[in-house]
Amino acid sequence: MKSYKIEGVILRTTDFGDANRVVTIFTRDFGKIEVNAYGCRRAKNSLSGALQMFNLISAEVNHGAKLDTIKEADIIKFYPNLTADLEKMSYAALFFEIVNRMTLPKFPEVGVYDLILKTLPTLDERNAKIAALIGIFQFMEFSGEQLNFFHCVHCGAEIETDAALSLTDGGAICPNCIDAAGDILSYPNNLRETVFKILNFDWQQHLNFNLKEIDAAEKIILRYVQSIIGKELNAVKFIRQLENLQKN
Ligand SMILES: [Zn+2]
Q1: CA 159 / ligand 1 centre spacing (Å)
Q2: In this model, does residue 146 exceed pLDDT 80?
Q3: Do 31 and 108 meet the contact criterion of CB atoms below 8 Å apart?
Q4: Fewer CB within 10 Å of terminal CB in the chain, N or C?
Q5: Ligand 1 center–CA 157 separation, angstroms
Q6: How far apart are CA 131 and CA 217, in angstroms?
Q7: Sign, Cα dihedral of 202, 194, 145, 82
């Protein structure tokens, strides 16, 4: 049986049977792939430690008739806070859910892979909410579905003042075109500046953001992504539940 080697990050796991798991891995060379991992939920199984969400692994995979099967796996890097801290975990899961839903299988995208590798340590060690948001905004640049934040989608004029944003029209709406917009969200100057900072964030800088602006940017991008996907993201439901628990 022919096998091949991969390096990648575990995006998602789904248990099946007594001890098995389907593992979705975003790999450097093959993009997103799904593999079977038989027996990996047994404590003594050699795969059990490696095949957890968020781990960066190297692995050997056997070709299979339907799904390929993972044979050996080693952890290259794991992020301890993403499994220990519920809030961090939920924001990392949000970023991963969006990447998983908006990428095609077996479609290599090194830019997305590199972005995931940059986002993970920031999620783990710094403000996970802000890190996830930056990851999502920057990921959308690769998705082909990014909103146009800086030019009016109706007339092409550069946005230089308070404006509006239309999710159905795909981006900013200048004051002159507001009557033609399909839907209208508030899009003030300072929010546009925050989006610019988010899209140009280089992952070395401090996470120096205004939390009110972060909330506003989060609201827009999550509404937009969920409108594309056509349903509420599981991680969003979970984050709202966590927030309600903390309030009570
Ligand atoms: Zn316009």
Answers
A1: 8
A2: yes
A3: yes
A4: C
A5: 6
A6: 13
A7: positive
Q: How far, in Å, from the CA of 182 to the mean position of ligand 1? A: 13
Band of the pLDDT at 1, cuts 50, 70, 90?
Answer: low
**pTM tops 0.90, yes or no:** yes
- Output the CA 189–ligand 1 centroid distance in Å: 15
Task: Summarize the confidence of residues 137-150 as an average pLDDT.
Answer: 97
Q: What's the rounded mean pLDDT across residues 224-241? A: 96
CA of 187 to the centre of ligand 1 (A): 14
φ/ψ of 156, rounded to 5, equals: 85, -5
State the Cα angle at 15 between 77 and 109, rounded to 5°. 50
- Give the pair of three-digit tokens for residue 113: 């892979």
| Ligand 1 geometric centre to CA of 29 (Å) | 41
Domain with CATH 2.40.50.140 in the chain: 3-78
CATH T-level assignment (fold) for domain 81-247: de novo design (two linked rop proteins) (1.20.1440)
199 alpha carbon to ligand 1 midpoint, in Å?
22
The Å distance, Cα 101 to ligand 1 centre, comes to 32
Handedness of CA 143, 148, 132, 98 (dihedral sign): negative
164-179 burial by CB neighbour count: b if 16+ within 10 A, else e? Answer: bbbbebebbbbeebee
Expressed in angstroms and rounded, the spacing between residue 156 Cα and the centre of ligand 1 is: 6
